[in-house]
Amino acid sequence: MIQSDTEYTNPEGLHVGMIMDGNGRWAAARGQPRLFGHRRGAKVVTEMVETAPALGIGTLTLYAFSSDNWKRPAREVSGLMRLFRSYLASETARCVENGVRLCIIGRRDRLSPALIHAIQAAEQTTRAGKRLLLRIAIDYSARDSIVAAARCAGECFPGSREEFGALIARVTNSPVVPEVDLLIRTGGEQRLSDFLLWECAYAELAFPDCMWPEMDARRLGRVIEDFHSRERRFGGLAHTAAAS
Ligand code: IPE
Ligand code: IPE
Ligand code: MG
Q1: 213 touches ligand 1 (CB under 6 Å)
Q2: Which pTM was predicted?
Q3: 138 falls in which pLDDT band (50, 70, 90)?
Q4: How is domain 14-142+177-229 classified at the architecture level of CATH?
Q5: Fewest beta carbons less than 10 Å away: which of 56, 132, 175, 230?
């Protein structure tokens, strides 16, 4: 049965965010055009989605195209937009089979009608997925989403932080999600590039030493293992210190 958003409960598990960076450099190092790297990167997305539930991930948010990426050459942008459409066309059935609910976060008004249609179809078709919530960020800016939520909230917002977070989710076309537990960025840079600024308040950060097309299930497993060895304090004290 298809769920309405008010009935929706998140799959159990970690919320992991991924900044999928390094496709262009990976391709250039092989004498290939940047789009070659993006196409290879899309295959890695499939591997990540397949691996995620077994590693205890319930929500996966992937940064595919930032609002600042419109600054790139028109050829690269149009190639990426075509790639998003073909990803949705080829992966939707696999998502249904694997219990993956797909949701595209970000602005829609600058996307082509054909891509918007593909997004709506994929979201509708995968709506009942309960094993993994897969959010893909396209034309996404965390700052823009916070501004949009603030506009909805109005001047004297009486709600809590959680309620404001829910507004942020709503303005980005997403169900309400838990905060990010772990943020992974490939590609060597250690910055957020306007991704999930609100949701990452206490996220653990990981920077695997590879370009996105080189990311794989084994590397993800190692990052998750390392994550479980960390102590998250959320501003409190370490267990040992709290007991003394
Ligand atoms: C990330 O890879 C994918 C997108 C931003 C669309 P890049 O395209 O940024 O690759 P690099 O960082 O130039 O290598
Ligand atoms: C961030 O990568 C955006 C995505 C991965 C989609 P960028 O390559 O655009 O980020 P900067 O420019 O290095 O900060
Ligand atoms: Mg980059």
Answers
A1: no
A2: 0.96
A3: very high
A4: 3-Layer(aba) Sandwich (3.40)
A5: 230
